[in-house]
Recover the amino acids of this structure.
């Protein structure tokens, strides 16, 4: 495991030691370090964290914004202090749970939108079904009228046939008496 002194870390990142000390106070939670014989050393992963802080500071981001971004990034968090380990695990769990809750809430929002869209489509289908039922009733009424008209036509054809038979018989009888 490669370790860096504070001075070496500041030199590699390209910041004054005073700036490094200030950032250590503000963001110590995110800067991987270890302690050996009452001396604090920094893991090489601290270089990436410090460079990220430097980039954010040059973009005029505030401490709160940088802290949020550091919490959301996946920098290595190896430290030898057991109390810090517990705190880091707890913070990572909360960060993970927060992300899960946010994803869950997005899913709920999407589901509600889809349910609303389906409800709207269902309402349109119900309206169409009502219109089809009205058409179906109209068709049934028209079929009944057609059947009645067929019956009337049948009766009229019967009357015509009877009338023609009567005329034929009348003519036949008239021809007999001539």
């Amino acid at each position: 495991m490669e370790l860096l002194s504070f001075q070496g870390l500041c030199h590699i990142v390209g910041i004054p030691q005073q700036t490094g000390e200030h950032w250590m106070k503000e963001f110590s939670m995110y800067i991987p370090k270890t302690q050996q014989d009452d001396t604090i050393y920094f893991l090489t992963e601290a270089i990436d964290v410090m460079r990220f802080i430097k980039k954010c500071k040059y973009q005029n981001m505030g401490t709160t914004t940088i802290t949020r971004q550091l919490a959301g990034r996946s920098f290595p968090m190896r430290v030898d202090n057991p109390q810090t380990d517990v705190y880091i695990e707890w913070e990572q769990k909360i960060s993970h749970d927060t992300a899960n809750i946010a994803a869950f809430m997005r899913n709920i929002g999407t589901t509600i939108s889809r349910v609303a869209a389906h409800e709207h489509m269902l309402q349109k289908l119900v309206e169409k079904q009502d219109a089809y039922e009205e058409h179906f009733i109209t068709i049934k009424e028209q079929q009944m009228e057609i059947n009645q008209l067929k019956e009337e036509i049948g009766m009229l054809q019967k009357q015509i046939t009877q009338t023609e038979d009567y005329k034929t018989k009348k003519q036949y009888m008239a021809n007999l008496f001539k």
Q: What stands out?
A: Confidence is low (pLDDT under 50) at residues 76-88. The longest helix spans residues 82-176. The CA atoms of residues 35 and 41 lie 6 Å apart. DSSP finds five helices and three strands in the chain.
